[in-house]
Automatic annotation (TrEMBL):
Gene3D superfamilies: 3.40.50.360
Residues covered by the NADPH-dependent FMN reductase-like domain: 2-148
Taxon lineage: Bacteria, Pseudomonadati, Pseudomonadota, Alphaproteobacteria, Hyphomicrobiales
InterPro entries according to UniProt: Flavoprotein-like_sf (IPR029039), FMN_Rdtase-like_dom (IPR005025), NAD(P)H-dep_reductase (IPR050712)
Protein name per the record: FMN reductase
A Pfam family hit: FMN_red
Length: 180
């Protein structure tokens, strides 16, 4: 069974990106995956500082790195902050990468963004793709940009726009089939 994790780069209450990550988990489970949502608020890490690498590192960084290293695929949803990914997500990637467990070397990564604007977080997705590629991740070709966040989901927490929903299904297929 394919093991897939989903993460949101936002820990804000009622986060649209967490909603997208949860939706992807449901769709992946419907396809037979062992899919789970990881809430980054359960992995509190200090601001990355190389001096801390020589001291006692946060245990949760090692725990998260182990979880990611065991996954076949990972979906990351990140809001766009000032044209980029969130500080929370960048800090998490930095800590996990420095655990030296190959957390980004095995899985296929899918990326998505829900944004309040019509550009659907495309700048954040571009930066996220760049950061993930620098740490050795294989990124699925379909990037899932979801614009107009307040109207993006219907009452069943599914994507309201059928074209965007079709892209989500394409990404689900890629996460289920693309392997290293």
């Amino acid at each position: 069974m394919t093991k897939i994790l989903a993460i949101s780069g936002s820990i804000r209450k009622d986060s649209f990106n967490a909603k997208l990550a949860h939706m992807m988990v449901r769709h992946l489970r419907a396809r037979g995956a062992d899919a789970a949502y990881l809430d980054l608020s359960n992995f509190e890490m200090p601001l990355f500082n190389e001096d801390l690498l020589r001291e006692e590192q946060p245990k949760c960084a090692l725990e998260l790195a182990n979880l990611l290293a065991q996954a076949d695929a990972v979906f990351i949803a990140s809001p766009e902050y000032n044209g980029s990914l969130t500080p929370l997500l960048k800090n998490t990637i930095d800590w996990v990468h420095h655990q030296k467990l190959g957390a980004f070397a095995k899985a296929t990564f899918g990326i998505g963004s829900v944004s309040s604007g019509s550009l659907a977080g495309i700048m954040a997705l571009s930066h996220l793709r760049d950061v993930l590629s620098k740490v050795g991740a294989l990124i699925a070709p379909t990037a899932l940009g979801v614009g107009m966040a307040a109207r993006a989901f219907n009452e069943s927490d599914e994507l309201a726009d059928q074209r965007v929903a079709a892209r989500a299904e394409a990404l689900v297929n890629e996460l289920m089939t693309l392997k290293r």
